[in-house]
Amino acid sequence: MAFDAFMKFTTSGTSASLDIEGETKDATATGCLEISEFSFGVENTLNITSKSGGAGAGKAEFKEFNVTKQTDSASPKLVLCCCLGGHYETVDLYLRKTGTTGTFTNLEEDSYLAYQFKMVAVKSIEWAGSSGDDVPTENVVFEYGSIKMMYKPQDDVGNLLAPIPAMWSVVKNAQTQDVR
After folding, report:
1. 88-98 per-position pLDDT tens digit
2. Is the dihedral of CA 129, 7, 16, 42 positive or negative?
């Protein structure tokens, strides 16, 4: 099933952290960027030995947060933030299933999957396009200090149930969103 993806930025209050608002026309996602693709991940180096009978875990390694979107009014500010070395207090990524029945009223409540990144910096930004495209696309790469994931399962009729959370601070190497 297809989904809609939206990003929302909260500034850190520094001069290098510019206000970013997207151009979405979605009434519940005012000020958000529309995202066409994203990727990130985590891996843990394991050491499975027969002596211990288990897997010895190392420190989790968090992958960069990559976003593909159309070039829009947020693009110049993302470039400047990258050049200035600024960061954002939080960046939220909301996923909402398309084609579901009912009316969307609140982006946070209507999202079946949400990620919140804290202490987020723009690492790089690249553009691509061809003459047949409506607008160029861009790939933005972010680094982050912590991540929180909230997944809401659905019941048999499509109602969202209580969220299942997970969080980790890359900075603290602990199960928290604290980055300071």
Report:
1. 999 999 999 87
2. negative
Instruction: State pLDDT tens for residues 132-170.
Output: 889 999 999 999 999 999 999 988 887 899 999 999 999
Domain residue limits at 130: 3-20+30-41+60-169
Q: Are 87 and 37 spatial neighbours (Cβ–Cβ below 8 Å)?
A: no
Residue 159 lies in a domain: yes
| CATH classification at residue 77 | 2.30.110.20
In the chain, how many H helices and how many E strands?
2, 11
Count of domains forming the chain: 1
| pTM assigned to the model | 0.88
Looking at the DSSP bridge assignments, the partners of residue 93 are 7, 115
